[in-house]
Specification:
Lipocalin, mainly beta, 98 residues, 9 strands, 77% strand, 9-stranded antiparallel β-sheet
């Protein structure tokens, strides 16, 4: 299952559900991406794809300041789901391919 494309995410947080867009593309065997929430797009750092599983980190502007979020998830058909880690704990995210 390809993880490339544009994903419309719902990120669950202690402040409620937050919308985001994840864009992933492949170039020469390497994956790159961006995560866009309410602020400017942030690079998807340390983006690793292993089959239908992926992991990456991204900086996010939050009400408590800029935080590094670490995502792990899996793609099934046109859906993506997983967890992301913050300094305040782990939370769920999910989404669909645009």
């Amino acid at each position: 299952m390809s993880v490339t494309g544009t994903w419309i995410l719902t990120i669950k947080s202690p402040l409620g559900e937050q919308p985001a867009t994840l864009r992933i593309h492949e170039s020469g065997g390497a994956y790159q991406g961006t995560l866009t929430g309410k602020a400017e797009p942030a690079p998807a750092e340390q983006l690793v794809v292993d089959g239908s599983n992926l992991s990456f980190a991204a900086d996010a502007d939050t009400p408590v300041g800029k935080l590094k979020l670490e995502f792990t998830g899996a793609v099934t058909d046109d859906s993506i789901a997983g967890k992301y880690q913050t300094p305040f704990g782990a939370f769920d995210f999910s989404g669909t391919r645009a």
